[in-house]
Amino acid sequence: MLVLFVLGLGVFLAPFAFPTPPPIVTGFQSTRLFSPNGDGTRELARIAVKLNAPSFIDVEIRDPSDRRWKGLIAEDRPKGIVRLSWDGTDEQGRPAPDGRYVVRLRARSGRKQWNASRTIVVDRTGPAIGGFSVASAALAGPGDGECRVTVTALDRGTLTIEVLPPARGSAAVARFGPKAVSQGQTTTWGWDGKRADGSSADPGPYVVHATLADATGNRSERSAACWAGHLTGTAIPPRPPIGALVGVRLRDAAGRPVPPTTPVQLAIFRRPPAPDGTPRIGAPVGSRVGGRVGTVQIQLPRRIPPGRLWIVATTRGGRALIPLRP
Question: Which CATH code, of 2.60.40.4070, 3.40.980.10, 3.40.50.2000, 3.90.1300.10, is assigned to 23-122?
Answer without folding.
Answer: 2.60.40.4070
